[in-house]
Amino acid sequence: MILDVAKLNLSFGGKRVLNDFGFTLEEGETACLLGHSGCGKTTALRCIAGFETAASGSIALNGRTLFSGSLNVPPHQRRIGMVFQDYALFPHLNIAANVAFGIAKQPAAERKRRVDELLALIGLPDYGKHYPHQLSGGQQQRVALARALAPRPDLILLDEPFSSLDADLRTRLSQEVGKLLKQERTSAILVTHDQHEAFAMADKIGMMADGTLHQWDDPQTLYRRPATPAVAAFVGQGAWLTATADADGSVQTAIGRTAALLPENHHGTLRLRVRPEHLRADPNGKTNARVAECAFTCGGFQYTLQLDNGETLHWLDGSHRTPDSRIALRFADTACPAAFHN
Ligand SMILES: Nc1ncnc2c1ncn2[C@@H]1O[C@H](COP(=O)(O)OP(=O)(O)OP(=O)(O)O)[C@@H](O)[C@H]1O
């Protein structure tokens, strides 16, 4: 374990922003804090960096306590590198000097070797003499990462680093940065509200809502076994369907029966998070849904379907159906959606 964040609590003007917030990060892992705007992601990151002080809790990095009731190590002594949303490169320094900024005290030859190594790593080996304004947004952000990596920090924190880039570049760059962090074997935490970014680069995702960490898991587990309704609703596509549990552990719904991940001590009516891949068209079934909306997405059609009882589902399929046409739906044999208490 490289980072241990435990039970951080912090309020702004009487509003609780972090609520017993904590997690552990293994060495070399990349984690993402994910959640709606205002849920406390940046505040959590700023506490780890030392720019914000929690009212209680503790933070230890590489076995060294950075924060506890009695101790608060200043940001520049934490061995943490930061990458910000706006790159924050120094406009009057060329790219090589920007990258070398945090290692100015190293001997010149060693410094040059490290800068060359990092410029090669970020795919800009010939850009040392260029200035920031001569680079694209994506290139500048890679330089900002190289600058943060130069002193070999114990941890890199990235605060919405791709949010000012267009969607296509964002996904590509998040994959690239994920690879670079692995090559440098640097542990990192990224803050984002974009789940595609999180899924593209994270070993672990921490899903936050209202200052509370709802789940800390690898991306697949987060998607397949969401711990709370907030996680189920935030991650991926899906819709809620009313369900009742049977004695054999399956659930009954308006489109039939399926296996499900049931909550502990389940009783009464449940709500089931049904994702598009949980559904199949049933050629021999009784029509139970109406096509409310159909949108073409590359490679297929995205449907909003309305069931006869008024409930709505989302579904993806390769063949086109016109709005208001009718269809019979069933659960896929492998479906196992998550169920929660109402
Ligand atoms: N310095 C501050 N003083 C007062 N309130 C603050 C301060 N910093 C953050 N907040 C409030 O704390 C809450 C959490 O803010 P935070 O920036 O951590 O959220 P976030 O999840 O990172 O949001 P976003 O994705 O929009 O950046 C918000 O309600 C915000 O208005």
Automatic annotation (TrEMBL):
<dbReference type="GO" id="GO:0005524">
    <property type="term" value="F:ATP binding"/>
</dbReference>
<keyword id="KW-0547">Nucleotide-binding</keyword>
<keyword id="KW-0813">Transport</keyword>
<dbReference type="Pfam" id="PF00005">
    <property type="entry name" value="ABC_tran"/>
</dbReference>
<keyword id="KW-0408">Iron</keyword>
<dbReference type="GO" id="GO:0016887">
    <property type="term" value="F:ATP hydrolysis activity"/>
</dbReference>
<protein>
    <submittedName>
        <fullName>ABC transporter ATP-binding protein</fullName>
    </submittedName>
</protein>
<dbReference type="GO" id="GO:0015697">
    <property type="term" value="P:quaternary ammonium group transport"/>
</dbReference>
<keyword id="KW-0410">Iron transport</keyword>
<dbReference type="Pfam" id="PF08402">
    <property type="entry name" value="TOBE_2"/>
</dbReference>
<feature type="domain" description="ABC transporter">
    <location>
        <begin position="3"/>
        <end position="235"/>
    </location>
</feature>
<dbReference type="InterPro" id="IPR017871">
    <property type="entry name" value="ABC_transporter-like_CS"/>
</dbReference>
<dbReference type="InterPro" id="IPR015853">
    <property type="entry name" value="ABC_transpr_FbpC"/>
</dbReference>
<dbReference type="GO" id="GO:0043190">
    <property type="term" value="C:ATP-binding cassette (ABC) transporter complex"/>
</dbReference>
<dbReference type="InterPro" id="IPR027417">
    <property type="entry name" value="P-loop_NTPase"/>
</dbReference>
<keyword id="KW-0067">ATP-binding</keyword>
<dbReference type="GO" id="GO:0015408">
    <property type="term" value="F:ABC-type ferric iron transporter activity"/>
</dbReference>
<dbReference type="InterPro" id="IPR003439">
    <property type="entry name" value="ABC_transporter-like_ATP-bd"/>
</dbReference>
<dbReference type="InterPro" id="IPR003593">
    <property type="entry name" value="AAA+_ATPase"/>
</dbReference>
<dbReference type="InterPro" id="IPR013611">
    <property type="entry name" value="Transp-assoc_OB_typ2"/>
</dbReference>
<keyword id="KW-1003">Cell membrane</keyword>
<keyword id="KW-0406">Ion transport</keyword>
<keyword id="KW-0472">Membrane</keyword>
<dbReference type="InterPro" id="IPR050093">
    <property type="entry name" value="ABC_SmlMolc_Importer"/>
</dbReference>
